[in-house]
Amino acid sequence: MDPQTKSRQEATKRGHAPAGQINIPEIVNLVFFKMVRSKTKFWQMVGRGTRLRPDLFGIGQDKKLFYIFDCCQNLEFFGQTPDTVAGSANESLSRKLFSNRVELIAELDKQKDPESKNEVRKKWPIGCAMKSNR
User: Fold this and answer.
1) More confident residue, 102 or 88
2) Neighbours of 109 (CB within 10 A)
3) Does the pLDDT at position 81 exceed 80?
């Protein structure tokens, strides 16, 4: 690898790539994970997603669009309002664990004899791993 290519790769890793030196037409997801307040840099980054790429998804299936995931309101800062798609709101892991534990307790309450309760505990090992120190 020649020194100039190596230098560009290192600059890209650090997020300091010189303008116009990155051309990756395969980019279909552009993620803004830090604030950008330079209009020039912003449009250069967006431009990286607009590069055409024939046959990206197979023969005759060209790249026709790309997605922008903006975690820092850069689009709003620069007054851009592209078409958006509503994301799905997934249940958090904490909520799933809590719901599972509530179901476990309800199932244990239904059981009358200790052997049945042990069978339920075998089905729900996560809820049974917690022990009270009181």
Assistant:
1) 102
2) 10
3) no
Alpha-carbon distance of 4 to 67, in angstroms, equals 30
- Rounded CA separation 107/17 (Å): 58
- The chain-wide mean pLDDT, for the chain, equals 76
Contact (Cβ atoms closer than 8 angstroms) between residue 51 and residue 23: yes
Sign of the Cα torsion 125, 127, 129, 134 reads negative
For residue 58, give the DSSP letter. S
Gap between the terminal Cα atoms of the chain: 64
Predicted local distance difference test score (pLDDT) of residue 59: 92
Task: State both tokens at 36.
Answer: 């950008």
Residue in the block written with tokens 């069978």: 119
